[in-house]
Design brief:
- The chain is built from no helices and 15 strands.
């Protein structure tokens, strides 16, 4: 799940896979986003206006009002996070890539020093990316 302010995003994989948005304060369902999550990471953009999830084809970036959705970065990504400027960080078993959230262009990519497949959690703090994989934390700068 992901949290931004009072908004909580939870991927649901039932008959129709989607993201459910809840108000943390009132504990009520706010909206259902018809976007499939691939079982990996989910996160909000720094401004809280979009949520990003990974699936088998790309990272999907969807507005929290449910009005717009678009793919970023082709291929399967095991983790997703955002930089403080809003760029999208994607993790695979072999690389870490940074894409522009505005136009989806690849900004930077580097080979991972260790296998980061099955990444459990990806987060960004300051100028570092932290990926939790098999109980080990990998730090990228």
């Amino acid at each position: 799940m992901a949290v931004h302010g009072d908004l909580v995003a939870v991927p649901v994989d039932l008959v129709v896979p989607c993201i459910e948005l809840y108000d943390y304060t009132t504990r009520t369902l706010v909206r259902i986003l018809r976007i499939k999550a691939g079982g990996g990471s989910i996160c909000f953009t720094p401004d809280g206006k979009h949520v990003a999830v990974n699936d088998a084809e790309s990272i999907k970036l969807m507005s929290v009002d449910g009005q717009s959705a678009r793919p970023i970065g082709e291929g399967y990504w095991s983790g997703v996070a955002f930089t403080c400027t809003g760029d999208v960080i994607c993790v695979t078993s072999e690389s870490v890539s940074v894409f522009s959230a505005t136009d989806g262009m690849l900004l930077r990519s580097w080979t991972a020093q260790t296998d980061v497949a099955d990444t459990d959690c990806v987060t960004v703090f300051s100028d570092r990316l932290y990926a939790l994989t098999h109980g080990r934390v990998h730090v990228y700068q």
